[in-house]
Amino acid sequence: MSSIPSPDLSDRTPVHRHHVDGFGEVRLVPVDPDADLDLLYAWVTEERAKFWGMNGYTREEVHETYTFLDGLTTHHAFLAVLGGRPAALFQTYEPEADPLGECYDLQPGDYGVHLLIGPAHGGQPVANFSTGLIIALIDYILTDPGRRRIVVEPDARNERAIERLRRVGFVLGPEIDKPEKRARLAFLERADAEAAVKAVSHR
């Protein structure tokens, strides 16, 4: 894992900070498509990230994808930083402005999320690594009171991701067919999201 590049994030202003007990402070910083390209390319094209849907992409295609996202007001990409190092890639979006919005019963206040957990620091397992990162993201989403329900749609074959979501309180919904995959919907109501954050965190 040491060969994966790590951009210098020390001067990047976070959009959110959150402390998870027994885990540490997670900072969310916006993705910079130019500065973060080496890291993004390494992460999204790894075999372990096959369900992310970008295996086989060239560096240019990865750069084009995140440059496009960077220009949108409805979709955003962030790196979660733990201990000064990138630990996860999070993408948020408004479902009504995304193809997903046509695939399920969209409700006011829905807010969509994609998440790619990075390799554990140093390549060694870290207790509650994925849960701590997901909780920090949920806490960020809750900063907007208009967000009433978090929606995720992992690949239906990605059992590990689905189990991670269940552990923090997501309720599984139906499977849906999207052009690029068969997905499993899961939902986290705001009250349940607040309870999940409170259970493992302090501000």
Task: Outline the structure in words.
- It is a single chain.
- The chain is globular and about 40 Å long.
- The protein has 203 residues and is α+β, with helices and mostly antiparallel strands.
- The chain has five helices and nine strands, in the order ββααβββαβαββαβ.
- A hairpin with a 2-residue loop joins strand 3 and strand 4.
- The protein is 26% helix and 29% strand.
- It has helices spanning 37-44, 59-70, 129-141, 159-167, 190-200; strands spanning 16-20, 24-30, 75-82, 85-93, 110-117, 149-152, 171-177, 182-189, 201-202.
Descriptive keywords:
single chain, 203 residues, alpha+beta, 9-stranded mixed beta sheet, 9 strands, 26% helix, 29% strand, Acetyltransferase
Q: List the helices and strands in order.
A: EEHHEEEHEHEEHE
What is the oligomer described by this structure?
single chain
Give me the number of helical elements.
5
- Sheet with most strands: 9 strands, mixed
User: Order of strands side by side in the largest beta sheet?
Assistant: 7-8-6-5-4-3-2-1-9
Shape type: globular
Proportion in β-strands: 25-35%
What is the rounded Rg? 16 Å
Which runs of at least 5 residues are low in confidence (pLDDT < 50)? none
Q: Kindly, what is the distance between the CA atoms of the first and last residues, rounded to a whole number of angstroms?
A: 31 Å
Helical content stands at: 25-40%
Count of individual beta strands: 9
Class based on secondary structure composition and strand pairing: alpha+beta
The average pLDDT is 90
